[in-house]
Write a structure and sequence with these properties.
alpha/beta, six-stranded mixed β-sheet, 9% strand
């Protein structure tokens, strides 16, 4: 409701037009009950057909005008929502793709997916029908006031019926909120179980996970069934109670009205008209409860969108140089994960000039991939600086900086587009004439030749269907397409066969000859032999920088 009022306040002229249309709609809605009263009181007593014709024509005109005002209000109500939902969804999705990765990682993926894929609640909440239901609520006093003019007793009976209907409606609105919320959480958890079964079929089968997943799935389904039953019971009680209150109110009005007719205090036409008049606010209350329920759901969806849209974003502007040389300096660099007992490393200082090759070694979990992500700008150090050609990386434009990188991540994934588009992703300016050379250097040619669609093959699920070796070769092709002055290779020989390793080592030697600044994160002895400097992250908390010959190998 607060959201709707805020939208109306933002467009005062439109709000005035909507209220004016609602006034006419609700005044014209009184025509049928008045028609019945006049027919029974005037025509039945006189029998003059002219009276009946006049009343019928007036009734028809009133219905036509009411329909016209309703259509006009619906068109006006569409402007209340406008493109606000689309803007919110756009802002949330922009936040997903432009937020700082560390901030995004703190939100559960299922929560993010629900936020950006659930616009139905927002669109349904502020439909013209729901907006009309809210606007009609204040005008219910018109029909109740007319009933009081006819009879105070009938008016009090109407108010009592409305109060009982509202109570049952609110019981359904608020009573079902908790089980409905728990139901949504249970459905999300069930989807997560199903996703595990679909995404990791080999792991499930090879390590006996079938029984575990089936038990987990059945437990979630039982919980979902129980919560649905609870929600259904609350809604059933609310609906049945509201319907019963409406029927009983009509019966009381007829009974009281009949008694007043016998006593000569009321006409038959007035009793019939009062019965129809009482139905108008009852309908308004029912529609209002449904509208409030939809708007409550929308409020929850808006909160989810706000949580995602409020993620801190990477800057879209910053410093850049016309020609990056690739000089890299770590100045008193330190990094620690939140709630970790200590830093992964600290007081790291070293300088790399173009043509230098640094191999970073260390056991699993020592911080190799973390250091690579720091250089890419995906993480932020807790202390110190990463300097790029003398510029602090935190002040550099991220988009510009990443175009300067030849980056091969440890676990490469891809966009769900063609292989050609994936290779060109980091450098859209690259021409098709350059692609054959990149494909040959990366060792991707045999795979493309064996596939009927070649470069036009569309990848799905981030390229998970590709073998690890092909993913590594494709990631190398994507990295080489960028052709930046700084090279970051995270476990470059992982998952590669003998021929693939030879190709990778040839690429590294070629990049070194072209005076690229090269950082390799690996424990592979074949890679260690290419190093000009070693950085050992096994030494804690201050890593050690050594010259060739000081490292005999690391853990895998």
């Amino acid at each position: 409701m607060k959201e709707l009022l805020a939208r109306l306040r933002a467009k005062p002229l439109l709000a005035l037009e909507l209220l004016t249309a609602s006034l006419f709609i609700n005044v014209l809605a009184l025509t049928p009950p008045l028609f019945f009263i006049l027919v029974f009181n005037r025509y039945v007593s006189s029998g003059f057909d002219g009276t009946l014709i006049t009343l019928s024509v007036g009734m028809i005109l009133a219905v036509l005008f009411k329909s016209a005002f309703t259509l006009a209000r619906n068109r006006l109500a569409e402007d209340v929502a406008g493109d606000r939902e689309s803007q919110r969804l756009h802002q949330a999705f922009v936040a997903v793709v432009r937020s700082r990765p560390a901030a995004l990682a703190r939100l559960p993926k299922t929560q993010v997916m629900e936020a950006v894929q659930g616009p139905q609640a927002l669109q349904a909440a502020y439909s013209p029908q729901n907006i009309g239901a809210v606007l009609d609520a204040p005008f219910a006093v018109l029909s109740v006031g007319l009933i009081f003019l006819l009879s105070t007793q009938l008016g009090l009976a109407t108010l009592a019926g409305l109060a009982v209907t509202a109570l049952f409606g609110l019981h359904g609105l608020y009573g079902a909120r908790k089980p409905a919320k728990e139901l949504g959480e249970a459905v999300t958890a069930g989807r997560h179980v199903a996703a595990q079964a679909l995404q990791e079929p080999d792991t499930v089968r090879a390590f006996g996970g079938q029984d575990f997943l089936v038990r987990s799935w059945n437990a979630h389904m039982r919980r979902i069934q129980s919560l649905r039953a609870s929600t259904f019971r609350v809604e059933s009680v609310s609906q049945a109670g509201s319907e019963a209150a409406g029927l009983l109110m009509r019966a009381v009005i007829i009974a009281l009205g009949a008694r007043l007719v016998v006593q000569g205090q009321l006409s038959v036409g007035a009793v019939i008209g009062a019965s129809f008049l009482a139905g108008l606010p009852m309908g308004v209350v029912s529609r209002l409860i449904r509208a409030l329920s939809a708007m409550t759901s929308a409020q929850e969806q808006t909160a989810k969108l706000g949580l995602v849209a409020g993620l801190p974003l990477e800057p879209d502007k910053g410093l850049a140089v016309e020609s990056c040389k690739g000089r890299l300096d770590f100045v008193d660099l330190a990094f620690a994960w939140p709630q970790a007992p200590g830093p992964l490393f600290e007081s790291l200082s070293l300088s790399l000039a173009p043509g230098n090759v640094l191999v970073v070694t260390g056991r699993n979990g020592s911080g190799k991939t973390t250091l690579a992500r720091l250089v890419v700008g995906l993480l932020t150090p807790i202390r110190g600086q990463i300097m790029v050609d003398g510029l602090d990386l935190r002040q550099v434009a991220p988009a510009w900086w990443r175009r300067q990188l030849v980056y091969l991540p440890q676990e490469p994934s891809f966009m769900n587009v063609s292989i050609r588009e994936n290779i060109r992703m980091a450098n859209p300016d690259i021409t098709d004439e350059n692609l054959p050379g990149i494909i040959e250097r990366s060792g991707l040619r045999p795979y493309l030749n064996a596939h009927p669609q070649g470069l036009e093959q569309i990848l799905a699920d981030g390229g998970r269907h590709l073998s690890p070796g092909v993913r590594r070769r494709l990631a190398l092709a994507r990295a080489l397409a960028a052709d930046g002055p700084l090279v970051l290779l995270d476990d470059p020989t992982e998952a590669l066969d003998k021929e693939g390793c030879r190709t990778m080592l040839d690429v590294i030697r070629d990049l070194e000859q072209r005076q690229k600044t090269i950082l390799i994160f690996s424990n592979d002895m074949r890679v260690l032999n290419l190093a000009g400097l070693f950085l050992d992250l096994n030494i804690k908390p201050v890593p050690r920088v050594t010259q060739p010959g000081a490292v005999q190998g690391g853990g895998s």
